Amino acid sequence: MEERAPFVSHSPSTESIHILLVEDNPGDVRLIEEAFKETVTETRFHTVTDGYPALERLRDHQQDPSLPTIDLVLLDLNLPRLGGFDVLERLEDDPDLSAPPVLVLTSSETIDDISKSYDLSANAYLTKPSSPDEFAELGHAIEAFWFEQAELPPLST
């Protein structure tokens, strides 16, 4: 297996965090966006409804560096056309495609889905909460770990 291209990041303390949200359920999109409004970190969402535009958005930055860099991907598994596992497989198989941390955020709690996600190099597997308050807690947890505690690779060109 070849290594992926390096992840490109910027300092969360000085700029907005750009999140690629890959989610086809409008209700979940709204809950996720609302959850991050509760966080201290300014977040900007780039929302797509299936895997094809998600991969396209990740490739677009390589072709046009003036586009905002995606800092984090929130990926649902159950999507129309190109699903979450297919996205993870393509990210893993394409060494020229740089991807930020990918957090699977799905309703599935099956061991097979969890194992397969990690086998395909997902950085975390999170089960969708069942209430707006739990979504807010999830937003704070993601902020605390991925934006404040985790050491991400430095900015590269």
Automatic annotation (TrEMBL):
Using the record's annotation, list all stretches that form the Response regulatory domain: 18-143
User: One Pfam family of this protein, by short name?
Assistant: Response_reg
Question: Which sequence positions carry the modification called 4-aspartylphosphate?
Answer: 76
Keywords attached to this Swiss-Prot or TrEMBL record, sorted alphabetically, are:
Phosphoprotein
**UniProt keyword annotation of Phosphoprotein present:** yes
List the InterPro entries hit by this protein, alphabetically: CheY-like_superfamily (IPR011006), Sig_transdc_resp-reg_receiver (IPR001789), TCS_response_regulator (IPR052893)
Q: Does the keyword Ion transport apply?
A: no
Residues passing through the membrane, by range? none
**GO process terms (BP):** phosphorelay signal transduction system
Protein name per Swiss-Prot or TrEMBL: Response regulator receiver domain-containing protein
